[in-house]
Design brief:
The structure is a single chain. This protein is about 15% helix and about 45% strand. The protein is mainly beta. It has two domains: about 55-75 and about 125-220, no CATH class; about 80-125, no CATH class. The strands form three sheets. The protein has a six-stranded mixed beta sheet. The longest helix has 18 residues, at about 1-20. The two termini are about 45 Å apart.
């Protein structure tokens, strides 16, 4: 009985944890920057050199660069199909000894078949997305041709939940501006994710029963 009461007391805390989980800590993989072993007593140490005639644009693993999100997409699609077909077959009754086969003067072996088919279908789809803002990413790799692999994420704790933005991709150093900012339209192989969790995000999702009745496995 005591164990049952303890379990019941722990249910509210567990429910709160499931509904409003904390913001995850920074991903250590973003900051795994390889560094050369220091050389004691040496005048030059690898990784600490400073170029006198270069700006502050990111160019090495571990540097940070700001990505200006300027994403806007719009798509519209519509389709309409209409078909119809009519067909008919008439088979006259046979004759016996030169006279049609009848019953009380009515032909009984005459046959006619008529068929009519019609289909009318229409569908339309429209979608529009827009994402603006800035996110600072970390250079996690430098490709042999000099291009930089970026990866970054941002988490925001709001009143009733969390919002996050995650960006990965490849940029050319020449596309990075003198202010160390590059537009998202210059990011190759871009993976941009924006979402949230919490009360507001959960209210925009259908329940599991609604998802079941709207699933492709439903025969109706």
């Amino acid at each position: 009985m005591r164990k049952f009461l303890i379990a019941c007391a722990a249910l509210p805390a567990a429910a709160c944890t499931m509904l409003d989980p904390p913001v995850p800590p920074p991903n250590p993989a973003l900051y795994a920057v390889p560094s050369a072993a220091p050389l004691p007593g040496a005048i030059f140490a690898s990784g600490s050199e400073v170029a006198l005639f270069e700006d502050l644009r990111a160019r090495r693993v571990g540097d940070v660069v700001t990505i200006a999100l300027r994403e806007s997409t719009s798509a519209t699609k519509s389709a309409s199909t209409k078909t119809s077909k009519d067909s008919g077959i008439e088979i006259p009754g046979p004759t016996l000894l030169g006279r049609p086969v009848t019953a009380n003067g009515t032909p009984i072996l005459e046959t006619s078949i008529e068929a009519e088919r019609e289909f009318d279908g229409a569908g339309s789809s429209s979608q529009s997305n827009r994402l603006t803002g800035n996110i600072t990413a970390v250079v996690v790799a430098r490709l042999p041709n000099g291009n930089l692999v970026l990866r970054g994420e941002k988490w925001l704790r709001l009143n009733q939940g969390d919002e996050y933005v995650q960006v990965t991709g490849v940029v050319r150093p020449v596309d990075i501006g003198t202010d160390n900012v590059v537009g998202s339209d210059r990011v190759a192989d871009a993976r941009i994710s924006y979402g949230g969790r919490g009360v507001v995000a959960n209210s925009n999702k259908p329940g599991w029963l609604d998802r079941f009745f709207n699933s492709p496995v439903m025969p109706f």
